[in-house]
Amino acid sequence: MRPLFHPAIEDVQPEAILHALSDPARAAIFAKISTAGCVEACSAVSSVGDRVIPKSSLSSHFKVLREAGLIRCERHGVEMRNHSRCAEVEARFPGLLSAIMGAYARAGAPRVAAQKGGTAA
Amino acid sequence: MRPLFHPAIEDVQPEAILHALSDPARAAIFAKISTAGCVEACSAVSSVGDRVIPKSSLSSHFKVLREAGLIRCERHGVEMRNHSRCAEVEARFPGLLSAIMGAYARAGAPRVAAQKGGTAA
DNA sequence: CCCATAGTTCTGAATTTCGGAACTAACGGA
DNA sequence: TCCGTTAGTTCCGAAATTCAGAACTATGGG
User: Fold this and answer.
1) CA dihedral B73, B74, B75, B76 (to 10 degrees)
2) What is the CATH topology of the domain spanning B9-105?
């Protein structure tokens, strides 16, 4: 099977990255791929939080991430290996990904913690 | 005059910011507001590049930016003053805005300035 | 009061996104 | 080899979003 299309790093556009990561589900998928040693099977992220994502939606999410230049996908037998392209993107747009993922990390905690009553603020 | 709704800075969500800035036109508007001493009338940005933006679209772009927490708008007589909320956003999501605007700045140039050497790896 | 200016809201059309169902590719077992 | 299972893609209609023209509102000037 021919390899999927991936944009060259110099063709990667900021608007594509922002659009891809402006969806919390995609951002969560990307976070998972990035932190999980940059390799992950598609089906391993079949849910975000407690929300189950249908296969077809998952497939298109991966497509968006791939075409935005954020991940690299290759078939390995019956499944897909997804590598993050963090390093390349970091070289092209310094600080972008870490700022975005950091923003999500920072926003993720407060509200949830406040409602749950867990953190003695 | 009743002030328009603006989210408190702690209610600002990363996905809203990314979505707002994932549109190059909005990113350009925001860049203009940010750099122009953080004050600008709506009609002063009636075009992006050589593309003229209709009033209604412009209005909704400003609304998106405002509701994302990126700008603060107040009526002054018949026109609108738009202040950037850079400082607040920077405090909440350190490095986010500068990374994004830097990415756009870096992407905007390359095609034209490719002969500057170094980047064509 | 009437008009001009600046911006908003309404509305329908075009585009995008979502998700179920059917389809394809790769492997394992008999 | 053939069949079944698993992993993921594609197709297609419904829902949501975006776009832009037209009408409307608010403010200030003469």
Assistant:
1) -120
2) Arc Repressor Mutant, subunit A (1.10.10)
Whether B6 contacts A15, CB under 8 Å? no
CA distance A78 to chain B (A): 33
Question: B74 in helix, strand or coil?
Answer: strand
What distances in angstroms separate CA A69 from CA A10, A20, A89, B14, B30, one per listed residue?
10, 10, 8, 20, 24
Q: What tokens appear for B79 in the block?
A: 């026109």
From chain B, pick out residues whose CB is under 8 angstroms from the CB of A24: 15
Question: Are A99 and B110 a contacting pair at CB < 8 A?
Answer: no
Run of H or E including B87 = helix B86-92
In CATH, the number for domain A12-110 is: 1.10.10.10
How far apart CA B45 and CA B42 sit, in angstroms, is 6
Over residues A21-77, the pLDDT tens digits come to 999 999 999 999 999 866 777 778 888 888 899 999 999 999 999 999 999 999 888
Cβ neighbours of residue A41 under 8 Å, at least 6 residues apart?
A79, A80, A81, A82
Task: Convert the pLDDT of each residue in B73-106 to its tens digit.
Answer: 999 888 899 999 999 999 999 999 999 999 999 9
Q: Which nucleotide is nearest to B22 (CA to C1')?
A: D18
- State the nearest Cα–Cα gap between A61 and chain B, in angstroms: 15
Flag if A102 and B119 touch (Cβ within 8 Å).
Answer: no
Instruction: Find the radius of gyration of the CA atoms of chain A.
Output: 15
**Helix, strand, coil content of chain A in percent (nearest 5):** 55, 15, 30
